[in-house]
Design brief:
Distance between the termini: 21 Å
CATH class of one domain: Alpha Beta
Largest sheet: 5 strands, parallel
Shape: globular
Radius of gyration: 16 Å
CATH architecture of one domain: 3-Layer(aba) Sandwich
C-alpha cells in the first residue's frame, strides 16, 4: 500500500526531515509546500512582476503557493499539519480545515501548549501527535499493521 502524505505547517524546524528519514523503507510518497520562506513570500512578484503595495505583493505569492498546496492536499491520502511554537500559523489552520473539508485523513502535530487553542482542529483530526516519531509510527502501523517495537 503506497501512501501519499502531504506535510503542511510550520517551516522553521526540521520536523519534515525527521518524518521522511524515519519513514525510509516504508511505501510512502511525501509532498510539502515550498519551505524556503523568502521564495514562498516573493514567488508572485518574482514571476508575475513587482507590486508597490505589500498587500498585492503578498497576495500574488499566496495565490501561487495555493496552487501547490491545493494540489498536494487534494492528492494526499493523509495530511499532516504541524503547528510550531514560534509563530501563529494561520496557514496551517487553513490547510487543516481544507483537508478536513475534503475528507482527508488528518494528523495534527503540536506540543501540549497548543491543546486548548487548537481544540477544534484537534477534534477534526484522526490523530493528534506531539512528536514527529509518533507520525512515523502511525504511518508504519497503517502500512504494516504492526505496533512499534
Amino acid at each position: 500500500m503506497t501512501l501519499k502524505v502531504y506535510l503542511s505547517g510550520e517551516i522553521h524546524t526540521g520536523w519534515r526531515e525527521e518524518i521522511m528519514e524515519g519513514a525510509a523503507g516504508l511505501d510512502v510518497w511525501f509532498s510539502a509546500p515550498v519551505t524556503d520562506h523568502d521564495a514562498s513570500d516573493d514567488c508572485g512578484v518574482a514571476i508575475l512582476g513587482a507590486e508597490e503595495n505589500k498587500f498585492w505583493h503578498d497576495r500574488k505569492g499566496a495565490q501561487l503557493n495555493a496552487i501547490r498546496t491545493r494540489k498536494g492536499i487534494e492528492d494526499a491520502d493523509i495530511v499532516v499539519v504541524r503547528f510550531g511554537e514560534k509563530y501563529k500559523q494561520w496557514n496551517a489552520a487553513f490547510d487543516a480545515g481544507m483537508a478536513a473539508a475534503l475528507g482527508k485523513s488528518l494528523i495534527v502535530l503540536h506540543g501540549p501548549e497548543h491543546q486548548h487553542p487548537l481544540k477544534e482542529v484537534d477534534a477534526a483530526a484522526l490523530a493528534v501527535a506531539e512528536h514527529p516519531f509518533q507520525v512515523v509510527q502511525i504511518l508504519e502501523y497503517i502500512i504494516n499493521g504492526k505496533l512499534p517495537a
